[in-house]
Amino acid sequence: MKAEKTQFSCVACGQQQPELSLENGYCPACEAIARIVREQPEMVRQLWLRLHNEPILPEAVPRSIESEAELPDVLDGKRYRTIDRDRNKWYLSVSEVNGKPVEVFASTAFDRDHELQSRISNLTTITRLISLILRHIFLGEPLTFDKCLKQIQRSSRQKNDLPDMLYGVLSRYNVPRQKSDEPR
Ligand SMILES: [Zn+2]
């Protein structure tokens, strides 16, 4: 009986190889490609676009920002006019990046009513937190406890309104950041 030399197949192309010539499970040719994919994803993106005339993984998050400060000064957007159950007129504005919603604003006539400051600050809290979540979903902005706190704090208009009280309570939990909380 003839002794067979143990062969392994490359995890990418399936070609049979002696075990020693496999690196990370890849044959030499595929390992060269895998290394580029690992170390130079931007080059892969550009090559793919060039060779296939379409973006690679068009569904993937197109880019990542660190904070809202990186948003362009001028954004596309849509404004919707609605009427609530109390017959107040509202304008709901949605700012977009690449057709995705990344910020919301809401305004209504009670903006000018001085007795309704607390309603406005509650409204601001809602839209600021929704915007933070939208940027996380659509722009890959890291979502951190610090940012939640900051948005709640900025929503406050006067001492002891709801966002101010929430900020006070939640700030107690603002311990120094753990290693595992850091963005990837
Ligand atoms: Zn291979």
Automatic annotation (TrEMBL):
Enzyme class per UniProt: oxidoreductase
Keyword check for DNA-binding: no
The reaction(s) this protein catalyses: a 2'-deoxyribonucleoside 5'-diphosphate + [thioredoxin]-disulfide + H2O = a ribonucleoside 5'-diphosphate + [thioredoxin]-dithiol
InterPro entries: TSCPD_dom
EC id: 1.17.4.1
Domain TSCPD: 76-173
Alphabetized UniProt keyword annotations: DNA synthesis, Nucleotide-binding
Gene Ontology process terms (BP): DNA biosynthetic process
Gene Ontology molecular function: nucleotide binding; ribonucleoside-diphosphate reductase activity, thioredoxin disulfide as acceptor
Family the UniProt entry places it in: Belongs to the ribonucleoside diphosphate reductase class-2 family.
Protein name: ribonucleoside-diphosphate reductase
Originating species: Desulfobulbus propionicus (strain ATCC 33891 / DSM 2032 / VKM B-1956 / 1pr3)
